[in-house]
Amino acid sequence: MLKIGDTLPAGTLYEFIEVEGNGCSLGPNAFDITKETAGKKIAIFALPGAFTPTCSARHLPGYIEQAAAFKAAGVDEIWCLSVNDAFVMGAWGRQEGAQGKVRMMADGSADFAKATGLTLDLGVKGLGLRSQRYSMLVEGGVVKALNLDEGGKLEVSDAQTLLAQARA
What we know:
The protein is of the alpha+beta class. It has one domain: Glutaredoxin, CATH 3.40.30.10. It contains 6 helices and 9 strands; from the N terminus they run E-E-H-E-H-H-E-H-E-H-E-E-E-E-H. A 7-stranded mixed sheet has the order 2-1-5-4-3-8-9. It has a two-stranded antiparallel ribbon with strand order 6-7. The mean pLDDT is 94. It is an enzyme of class 1 (oxidoreductase). Thiol-specific peroxidase that catalyzes the reduction of hydrogen peroxide and organic hydroperoxides to water and alcohols, respectively. Plays a role in cell protection against oxidative stress by detoxifying peroxides. Its EC number is 1.11.1.27. Belongs to the peroxiredoxin family. Prx5 subfamily.
């Protein structure tokens, strides 16, 4: 399982791009994790699924509300990761007003979740393999802080906890 001091695993995440430009086409675009994190300080939070109750009511909104505070703390980008496709993540981001604040990154086949060892089997609820709920602060691809919630709770992966770590 991924831990503080580890480098993020290599791989690809997908983001739905609303407006064509800057080398990105309209629709889902692939992004290399190693290249996207190089030389940047990134706040990453992962959750079991887009449009799910806790994720929509509390987890994502906290990061959207605190986006300016994260920037002020030296964070270059905020990423929301979920085992959903880029179309779903894009639609969820539009609904929640994430544009320009939080990058909605899709891990559609759970490859990143598997590579980090941070998976959650929700097959019994008909949701299949998902990501655990966590947050992490990453600098240059290296994990500097990692907050893992247990049992579907939202206690330590919230925006306030990661923001305090980014300010430290």
